[in-house]
Amino acid sequence: MQRQRGFTLIELMFAAAATAVVIWAATGFLLKAMSWYDELSAKIEINRHARETFDVLAYGGYSTGAGNDGTKNIYGIRGSNLAPAVPGLRKNYALQYTDNKLTLTPDLSAPMSIFCVSPADPMPDCGGGQKTVQGWLGADFVVNSGARSVANATVEVTMTIMDPYEIQRAQNPATFADTYRTVFTLNRNENDP
Question: Which sequence spans correspond to the domains of the chain?
Answer without folding.
Answer: 9-185
